[in-house]
UniProtKB/TrEMBL annotation:
It comes from the Bacteria. InterPro entries: Aldolase_TIM, DapA-like, Schiff_base-form_aldolases_AS. It comes from Brevibacterium sediminis. SMART domains: DHDPS. This is Dihydrodipicolinate synthase family protein. Pyruvate binds at T48, V206. One of its GO terms (molecular function) is 4-hydroxy-tetrahydrodipicolinate synthase activity.
Length: 298
């Protein structure tokens, strides 16, 4: 790959067959469809991909399927989320061996760690990493909010490629850009505030919704990146409604999967204990998507 690692990274769900196994054929087919939108890359084995519900063998199979399906046409980033630094590093090594271009790590879940302790844990992981690293700041899930000064302490490792920012703080993208400069990419990680993040100087968007609506998500980024803010705002009025319905639902993974299923892209259920979206939520989302497509044909 030679194109810059900025822009839209779609986050795949993990399709399952009726027998509960991964449906790797469905995954590969959807990769092909999403790539046609022009996204910069895919970020596999994130929370949207139910990574923590997969066995080691399933992880390997999924990574190899994504890398093979992409076939060098886009960047492949792999989530390497684990409780211990040693396990993170082992997952990074595997991802590198199976053809990933970069990886994503998070603070250890359920640790209740202070930010300085998180940085101390991540520092050796980044230092030893064979691949560029995205650090995912997700205080809602990890219990730790990594501020710009904390993340700056990882820059000298030479492996801090980017930050995925989902704290929801109104000015955080701008603060990260100001503190980390242009050498570290800053990605919006919360779909419902994508346009606001672009306006603050984000490098792009790690978008679960781009697995469902890749053309519209890619178009929003292109409009903003080119400075066509009037066009971006016009699109966002409809796209933002649909994305807000997804992000505001605790069963958002199921919601994405069911919406894809209604359009002929079967993804199967979510694995327990993840919740299943109800019919009213699905109906509201499908109505919002229909309105989006009526106003902004892909």
């Amino acid at each position: 790959m030679t194109n810059p690692m900025r822009g839209v990274f779609a986050v795949p769900t993990t399709p399952y067959s009726d027998d509960g196994d991964q449906n790797l054929d469905a995954l590969g087919s959807r990769v092909e469809e999403v790539l046609a939108s022009g996204v910069t890359g895919l970020l596999g084995l994130g929370a949207t991909g139910e990574a923590l519900a997969l066995s080691a063998a399933e992880r390997e199979a999924q990574i190899k399927t994504i890398v093979s399906a992409v076939d060098g046409r886009a960047h492949v980033v792999i989530g390497c989320m684990a409780y211990t630094p040693a396990e993170m590093s082992a997952q990074i090594s595997d991802a590198a061996g199976w053809g990933a271009d970069a990886v994503m790590v998070t603070p250890p879940f359920y640790g209740g760690l202070e930010p300085d302790a998180v940085i101390a844990a991540l520092h050796p992981v980044l230092t030893a990493s064979e691949l560029p690293v995205m650090v995912y700041n997700n205080p809602h899930s990890t219990g730790t909010d990594l501020l710009p000064d904390h993340l700056a302490a990882l820059q000298h490792t030479g492996r801090l490629w980017s930050v995925k920012e989902t704290s929801g703080e109104a000015t955080r993208i701008r603060e990260l850009r100001d503190r980390l400069g242009e050498d570290t990419e800053i990605f919006v990680g919360a779909d419902g505030i994508a346009l606001e993040g672009f306006a603050q100087g984000a490098s792009g968007w790690v978008a679960a919704s781009a697995w469902l609506l890749p053309d519209h998500c890619q178009r929003l980024w292109e409009l903003a990146d080119s400075g066509d803010w009037a066009g971006a705002v016009d699109l966002w009025r409809s796209l933002g409604h649909a994305l807000g319905l997804i992000e505001g639902d605790s069963a958002f993974i199921s919601l994405i999967k069911q919406a894809l299923g209604r359009t002929g892209h079967e993804q199967g259920p979510v694995r327990p204990p993840l919740p299943t979206a109800g019919p009213d939520s699905l109906a509201s989302l499908l109505d919002a998507i229909a309105e989006l497509e009526r106003k902004h044909a892909a």
